[in-house]
Structure formats: structure tokens, C-alpha cells
Fold this sequence. Notes:
By secondary structure, the chain is an alpha/beta fold.
Amino acid sequence: xxxxxxxxxxxxxxxxxxxxxxxxxxxxxxxxxxxxxxxxxxxxxxxxxxxxxxxxxxxxxxxxxxxxxxxxxxxxxxxxxxxxxxxxxxxxxxxxxxxxxxxxxxxxxxxxxxxxxxxxxxxxxxxxxxxxxxxxxxxxxxxxxxxxxxxxxxxxxxxxxxxxxxxxxxxxxxxxxxxxxxxxxxxxxxxxxxxxxxxxxxxxxxxxxxxx
Length: 212
């Protein structure tokens, strides 16, 4: 167990360093291609005949910070198309995330550690409605082709996924879990714990990887 934790710690440090040292031109080119893939995926989801409400989507996404893959395009696209989009507000005691609706840039402010988050006045989506979400965009440092992910070590998204699974099991539907993958973030194998969340799709500069 100790060895596994140390392995994850070293992997986080290596991947963080790699991401922060990325050439800016390379990053911008990658983000442009990732956004093209993301737009195609959103358009496909909007046309899905199995959805109860056609047209608009319900999305939950992190607000990007620092060297993370930018989610600015996603928020602008969602607002333009009339989608309902939520972002995480981190709460400390007990450590958890609230999903709060963001209707425009005016709803976002610097939160804990300077990371952008929704204002306290934004409406909260209760956990029993989480299965209604179409797409969840999860931040992270590294990913593999089996849907493995390594985050920042806080466990916020793993706890979110565990709570989401409980509600999805009762309602028989669940959102797609996705990540935006920058060059250098794809690993042969991410060490996973039983409760770590797994992804359904990776949006990379080379295209979209659907994980079975």
C-alpha cells in the first residue's frame, strides 16, 4: 500500500512538471484540436435520440486553472447553445464538491487557492439530480487507454463519482465521464485504487478515444 502511494506521488510530480514545461505553441495547437473534437462530441450528444430533452445538454465541468487543459471553449459553447452548465465549488468540512450552475462569466470568482469557482449565489444541483447530467469533464494529471486517471490527490472527484454511482444505480442512467488530454498526459498504465473513478472517453489532439 505504501509502495503504491509512493508510486502515485512520483507519477503526479513527473506529470505535473511535464505539463507545466510544455511549449506554449504546442499547447495552443493541441487545445485547438481538442476543442474541435469536443465540439463534435457535444453535437453528437445533442442529437442522441435516447435523451429525454432534445437539443440542450446538462454539463458538469471544472473551470481550468494554471497549466490545465482549458475549458473556456466548453463554457462559451454551452452558453451559446443554451446548455445548462455546472462547475464545482469546493467545500472543506467534510471535503466535498457542490455542483453550482454558471450562467455566464459574471458567475465566476477566484475561490480556494485562487482556483476559479462559481459564486455562492449560484444555484446548487442536488445529488439526486446528478444522473441527469449528460457529460462530466474531469480534470487530471494523467490518463490511460483503460479509462484510468490520476488526479491531484485530494479525492474530490473520486468522492463525487462514488456518490454519483449510488444515485445512478437507483435511476438506471449515468453521465459520460470525459477528460481533455494534453500531449504527454497519456500513460501506458495508471496505478488505480478500487474507488478511483474511471473515464468513458478521452478527448485528445489526435481524436476521441471511447473506452469500453
